[in-house]
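[step 3/7] inverse_fold.run input=structure_tokens len=159
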């Protein structure tokens, strides 16, 4: 099964996490700005990741990237989402970009996997929480980088 990890990253944090995930999955990794619709279509499994900006917004590369996803037939693909954010400085929008990725693919016919319990996280609010769980893997490299590897490993077991 071909797995493609797609990320949007401004400061390099989401890219670094995407590369860690890709290594563990033996997957190809691409910035969404460089990915083509045909590359997305060729993958059976997609891992989508973004840093969160402003009031829970996607990283800039994803705005065109969402269009690429919507132009691709995602039916029967397996999709997992991850996000990076700051649970202290932006506690009320923590990893909110994951919600935008989730909304873009939830009605695509793809099988969404990798929801994560909010237990063990400290934040006030997040649009990325649906039915008491994050829609994907939430990571805080600013304040909890010591938990990143363990969280990734645990998450990968579920997807």
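[step 3/7] decode complete -> sequence:
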């Amino acid at each position: 099964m071909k797995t493609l990890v797609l990320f949007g990253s401004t400061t390099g944090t989401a890219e670094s996490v995407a590369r860690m995930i890709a290594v563990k999955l033996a997957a190809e990794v691409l910035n969404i700005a460089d990915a083509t619709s045909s590359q997305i279509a060729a993958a059976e499994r997609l891992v989508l990741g973004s840093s969160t900006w402003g009031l829970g917004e996607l990283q800039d590369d994803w705005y065109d990237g969402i269009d690429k996803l919507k132009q691709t037939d995602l039916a029967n693909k397996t999709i997992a989402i991850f996000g990076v954010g700051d649970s202290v400085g932006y506690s009320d929008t923590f990893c909110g970009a994951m919600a935008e990725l989730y909304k873009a693919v939830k009605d695509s016919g793809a099988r969404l996997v990798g929801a994560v319990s909010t237990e063990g996280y400290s934040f006030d609010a997040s649009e990325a929480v649906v039915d008491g769980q994050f829609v994907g893997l939430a990571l805080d490299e600013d304040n909890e980088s010591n938990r990143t590897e363990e969280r990734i490993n645990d998450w990968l077991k579920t997807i």
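[step 4/7] annotate
Residues 21 and 152 are 7 Å apart (CA to CA).
The radius of gyration is 14 Å.
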